[in-house]
Amino acid sequence: MNKPLRRIAIFCGILILALLIRDNWLQYVRADELNSHKYNRRVEIERYAHERGDIIVDGKAITGSVETEDSDFTYKRVWKDGPLWAPVTGYSSQAFGSSQLENLEDGILTGNSDQLFFDRTLSMFTGDKKRGGNVVTTLNGDAQKAAFEGLGKKKGAVVALDPKTGAILALASTPSYDPSVFAGNSFKDSDDRQQLLKDKDKPMLNRALRETYPPGSTFKVVTAAAALENGLYDDIDAKTDSPLPWTLPQSTVQLKNEGSIPCKDASLREALRWSCNTVFGKISDDLGNQKMIEQTDKFGFNKEVFTPVRADASIYPEDNRPQNAMAGIGQASNRTTPLQMAMVAAAIANDGKLMDPYMVAERQAPNLDPVYTHEPEELSRALSGENAQKVQQMMETVVNDGTGTNAQIPGVTVGGKTGTAQHGLNNSEKPYAWFISYAKTDNGSPVAVAVVVEDGNANRDDISGGGLAAPIAKNVMKAVIDSKK
Amino acid sequence: MSVVTNTTTIGAIDAPSRRNTELALVIFAVAISVFAYANVGLALNGELPSGMLGYGAGLALLGGVAHLVVRRFAKYADPLLLPLATLLNGLGLALIWRLDQSERLLNHPNFAPAASKQLLFSAMGVALFVGVLILLKDHRILQRYTYISMVVALILLILPMFFPPQFGARIWITIPGIGSLQPGEFAKIVIAIFFSGYLMVKRDALALASRRFMGLYLPRGRDLGPILAIWAMSILILVFETDLGTSLLFFGMFVVMLYVATERTSWIVFGLTMSAVGAVGVASFEPHVQDRVTAWLDPFAGWGTHPASEQMAQVLMSFGSGGTLGTGLGQGHSDLILFAANTDFILATVGEELGLAGVMAFLLLYGLIIERGVRTALAARDPFGKLLAIGLSGAFAIQVFVVAGGVMGLIPLTGMTMPFLAAGGSSVLANWALIAILIRISDTARRPAPAPAPSTDAEMTQVVRP
């Protein structure tokens, strides 16, 4: 019986060999694939096993990590002042993933980024506990607070930029939400998130970057810039060829002004001061759709902006003549984000140079050594320095004795433009109040702001860029100037 | 251990008993297990476990007692079998204790800590081992109980039918005070005894008195009938109890023993064909099996909808996450498998926490046990011993293959336990008994032939007086 026994021995050997080969296939060849499989909870467990790095504003962390007891995820994200900072940081939830900076800078915050390779290798030898790196933002805490408190219970958004660098100083959106409430993965977190998603005021919408509004009269600044750049008018104090009443081209509709303001053949400066629809509507028509598109392109319209958080593209579309004329006063199919209008104000304040907006100044390794520092970059030349200064003079007139007097700051030169964008069919809904502005000190301009307030509660007659939005812009600019002192 | 120089043609040669080798290996096995236990404690709680001394002493006591009994009652037994069983049992205890401390498992409704129970059953297993070695002076005695073992095997297999099914299979019986037992584990040994006894008697008839049919030699019905009937019955019972792993095990054991007994390759062909037909047949009507096959073909496809697939996917991810060297004992997340993590799927914990290296080491330990078993069969001088040894070690090999192959996704999963490693009282008891029988056969096989009695005639013829 020994011959079959030997064969059985070989058979048993083959069984064991098959298991060994399979094991090698599983644990060596397929190990990486299985280890990082999307269903592999270990990835998430590992992700929350260490303290996440922080997002820093003014040298202080606005985020944090707390240890939790109720699940296998050890650490949970918390925010120091959630609603204030949510439009900047986004959320990072154990159950619902992450968004915005928390998402884009995840590699640094978790410590898994390639940029931290040396740091990780080093701590492997020193035996340090794994930690995430920090993301240092460009934001200005005081300006952000001024913006958030200025908006208060009203719906709206504020963006403030440093015109010289493009650094984002404030990025507020109301109503806001506290990302801490659904940072965990309990049923309560899930319910609270559902509540936020169902809220008809859309608190999780980042209005500063992801909502486009009709820009209203604030767009006249762009139209004015286009007129100067294209040589349509040269002297901002010379009379323009602007009849009153003015009939829209290819139409019998007369374009109206708000109240009886001196707009007939008004100079550019006067037209902007009083916000003359007829003057700027006609300029847009005189230049034509193509030239208007070219000018808006230079201001950064018509494409998405990455700060690095993506902002929706602001649009100045191809359109027919009457619509193009209306778009010249920001009242047609052109729509902009608050960020875009802040970029317009910033480009003008920076003598025509449009800087690429950004909010990550530096990425730090867990030991606080910088691994990346942002260098300001010029995005485009929106208009010539000479023309930019002309527009500045016009905008300063608006604030000194025009519709924007509410934005005046004693001892500081402020330029601005109000806007009240009609909203809804036949202006049936309450309009949006806009204000864009910049402040100038002896060292150039430290801040440019765009404010939009979509206020459903205010008395209709009170809604105006000058009345609702300008005071907020003023406080934000003041906060930036004060913090520089 | 004295070796007498062989000066005559026939003499009493005191063959090496290798008992000291065995002792050294048992000490090694206990030491490794205690290290594993300490490792788990350090990883999970940051301190040496308080039960370490008790655990070490207990395991050393079990190994020591078993060794002393082998030294006394089976002097020439194979020296590897006992240390291998001790090592596997000891490491299994450490692994079970590690899973006992998983919060995730403790929150699961079907989970209860099993380490202390497993230790108790290990003690009972070693007691059974000792009992078998002391009571079973010669394995050939078992031959007398051929037909009794047939009856016992059938009773063991039918018993669970009278108990409620647990987790989709009717393979448990509940004894008050002891808990659940799987009689199938014991039936494995008893049926091997029956097969060996029957085949030893009938092997010539089966091999020679056969008709030629389509190129194959088929035995006469009256020779093959009884064994075929018993075998078919057990398979049927197991199918109704949805214990497919065990039915596969019985079938494989039957084919192996038949082949060894008759030395006819046609049995292998026969067996493979029948198992293929049987597998396809069962899979076509049994939803339990269909689930397993689906889970085997694409475990990730059924994520979130199919519990069987999801569990298989969890097991595979456990292996994948372990990688080459593993996360280290106590530092993995194999408890994500939840249900049956410490029984059917315990190899996944080995895979994750000890890695490819650890699993290969375990597979080789099993391979060694099988190899020693086959060697015992080769060395055995009587056909009954040969058949019993190959039956038991073949069954052991098939069980290891079916469980490990199932857990690693090589073949569809069937619920069975990894011998010695998995939590489960009947498994530990039965496998200790199995090792005891193998040790008994190997002792008989390696025992030196008794010295020939002095022949007076020889003396007479040699003395030539002038």
UniProtKB/TrEMBL annotation, chain A:
UniProt superkingdom: Bacteria
Every Penicillin binding protein A dimerisation domain range: 52-135
Pfam families assigned to the protein according to its UniProt record, in alphabetical order: PBP_dimer_2, Transpeptidase
Domain Penicillin-binding protein transpeptidase: 156-478
InterPro entries: Beta-lactam/transpept, Beta-lactam/transpept-like, PBPA_dimer, PCN-bd_Tpept
Matching PANTHER family: PENICILLIN-BINDING PROTEIN 4B (PTHR30627:SF24), PEPTIDOGLYCAN D,D-TRANSPEPTIDASE (PTHR30627)
Protein name per Swiss-Prot or TrEMBL: Penicillin-binding protein 2
Organism field: Streptomyces durocortorensis
UniProtKB/TrEMBL annotation, chain B:
Listed InterPro entries: FtsW/RodA (IPR001182)
Name of one Pfam family that matches: FTSW_RODA_SPOVE
Swiss-Prot/TrEMBL keywords: Cell shape, Membrane, Transmembrane, Transmembrane helix
Positions of the UniProt region annotated as Disordered: 446-466
Record field: transmembrane: 23-40, 52-69, 81-99, 119-136, 145-163, 183-201, 222-240, 246-262, 267-285, 345-366, 387-411, 417-439
Highest rank taxon of the organism: Bacteria
Subcellular location: Membrane
Keyword Transmembrane: yes
Membrane-related topology note: Multi-pass membrane protein
Record has Membrane as a keyword: yes
Protein name: FtsW/RodA/SpoVE family cell cycle protein
